[in-house]
Amino acid sequence: MHRPESLHDPGIELPGPWEHRYISANGARFHICESLPARASPESALVVLLHGFPEFWWAWRHQLPVLAATGYHAVAMDLRGYGASDKTPRGYDPLTLAADVAGVIRSLGSRSGVLVGHGWGGYVGWAAAAHRPDCVRAVCAVASPHPRVLTSARQWLPPGKPVRHLLAMQVPWLPERRIARGSYVADHLAAWAGPASGFPSAEEAARYQAAFALWPSPHCALEYHRWLFRSRLRADGRAFARVLRRQVAVPVMHVAGSDDPTEPAAAGRASARYVAGRFEDHTIEGAGHFPHEERPAEFTRLLLDWLSERTTTGGDRTG
């Protein structure tokens, strides 16, 4: 098991109105960034924020303090293999990742939490809602349709950015070396953002590049992509497919950017067929693949309005 050289890496433990902690769950150690409400109580609903590729917990810097100020217990975690969380040799299939999130929720002393996930974080959120419904109160998936829609959506797309991106990651080791240095992260973020959003700034690109350069983060991140491609031929892929046959019973909101080059406009709406709970689909104009960072104020307002209807009951802490 690989761990960060320092559990206090200044490039990961960035200062702000939050606290950094390390949580043991599902056989690994996870770094979380936590913002507690001023008057925390057993009724303070837990909101777990899950980043996407090629980012880390800092992707939720705009939402963490606002959620806490509104009364939520907000936690942004580094997914397995990212940031300051453990870089394990295996465990990058969605069922293990779902168990990671469920374990963190329980280690925080809660029975369940609301999951807000972007990109791969949304994929993990969908997996957790299907595989560990006892730990999930609701899901907000950002630029991340249901996994079954995501797979079929590739058939709707021309061989552009998303398809080339996934295929390029299947080559052994060369992609790791390419993305760990140079301008790969900045170029990727800019190419997938809305053309008029101004994201990423030079500072944002530098933050993400520095975090992603922490070896073996590039290799671990690519294992997510490689599992998706190879899973059709593996037993764990068949196991996940069986899990996905279950409809998600909790409320779900999908949020997309109007200028996201990775997602067909109908993909979010198509996710409704896999949700038994209440489903909402929203589009943020002028945003690309990262609406929570490109249009943070608009995204956060939308999230808070949705949360206010989903978290009216408390009593979520374990005894």
Provide keyphrases for this structure:
single chain; 319 residues; alpha/beta; 8-stranded mixed sheet; 8 strands; 16% strand; disordered N terminus
Architecture blueprint of SSEs:
Elements: E1 19-25, E2 28-35, E3 46-50, H1 64-69, E4 73-77, H2 94-107, E5 113-118, H3 120-131, E6 136-142, H4 147-153, H5 161-168, H6 174-179, H7 184-192, H8 202-212, H9 217-230, H10 235-243, E7 252-257, H11 267-270, E8 279-284, H12 291-294, H13 296-310
Parallel strand pairs: 3-4, 3-5, 5-6, 6-7, 7-8
Antiparallel strand pairs: 1-2, 2-4
Helix pairs in contact: 2-3, 7-8
Q: What is the CA-CA span between the terminal residues? A: 32 Å
- Approximately how much helix is present in the residues? 25-40%
Main beta sheet strand tally, sense and closure = 8 strands, mixed
Mean pLDDT: 88
What are the secondary-structure elements, in order, as H or E? EEEHEHEHEHHHHHHHEHEHH
**Coarse structural class:** alpha/beta
Secondary structure tally, helices: 13
- Sheet-strand content, in percent, reads 15-25%
Number of strands: 8
Structure notes:
By secondary structure, the chain is of the alpha/beta class. The chain is built from 13 helices and eight strands. The protein has helices at residues 64-69, 94-107, 120-131, 147-153, 161-168, 174-179, 184-192, 202-212, 217-230, 235-243, 267-270, 291-294, 296-310, and strands spanning 19-25, 28-35, 46-50, 73-77, 113-118, 136-142, 252-257, 279-284. It has an eight-stranded mixed sheet with strand order 1-2-4-3-5-6-7-8, sandwiched between helices. Strand 1 and strand 2 (28-35) form a beta hairpin. Helix 2 packs across helix 3 (120-131) and helix 7 (184-192) packs across helix 8 (202-212). The protein is globular. The two termini are 32 Å apart. Mean pLDDT is 88; it is low at 1-6 and 155-160.
